[in-house]
Amino acid sequence: MNNRTAGTSSSGGSRTGRNLPAAIAVGVVLGALVLGSLYTIKELFLLVLVAAVGVGVLELSKAFATRDIKVPAVPVVAGMAAMQAAAYWGGPMWLLATFAVFAFVLLIWRMFSEGTEGYVRDATASVFTLFYPSMLAAFAALLLRTADGDHRVLIFIAVTVASDIGGYIAGVLFGRHKMTVISPKKTWEGFAGSVVACTAVGAWLVTWLMHGAIWQGALIGGLAALLATVGDLVESMIKRDLGIKDLGTILPGHGGLMDRLDSLVTTLVPVWLLMTLFF
Known about the structure:
Radius of gyration: 19 Å
Order of helices and strands: HHHHHHHHH
Distance between the termini: 28 Å
Structural class: mainly alpha
Number of helices: 9
Strand content: under 5%
Oligomer: single chain
Shape: globular
Helix content: over 70%
Largest sheet: none
């Protein structure tokens, strides 16, 4: 998710290359899917989560393959699904144990699937994919498993989306000073817009849905803005190292699912931790 300097063009997109009408339409559909599953049967949202992260894992695996780095899809996706289930029905300790088991499975899998050359490279990339995004995404299941888990997940998603929207608008209107060469279209003005939007949305939703203090919601929102930006930069580093623009094309106006999950997964752990401490 990016804080960009941009202007609209006659093609319906922007100077950043994002097709804004398509991006908005996809965002509305995804939002309806999330809300519809989250506030009906929690397990339905868990299935949506597994499907989304599963696609993201496949995108990342295919991206590694462009540099001849072999990440086996079957055990990584199986491990991702198992960690979601372990987190939701077992809790943090089961999540950690499941991660350790499947990390070992991946080391053994690579041992017997290919020769010795490239073992460390492939095994490292495989365990990395098991962690990012798979294990990080399982913290959404930890949020979901509580009695008010629907509200907690909604707050987490809302503050992270607010980072993208606030950063994009501020970047379009005021963006002048570039943050880093890692992501040249990201500006300090856009980052400030992310912080303002996240803080406001966090303060509002935490007081409304969780009956918490304004400062608690503002803290959750502000931290989400920072880590959502870090998550975007992490994915930018991955894409630059692999020499690709996007990790996928499944979402018109957005790119791949990993291009949407990048900032979500990096905000999950601290949001879960703060909500666990506060509520």
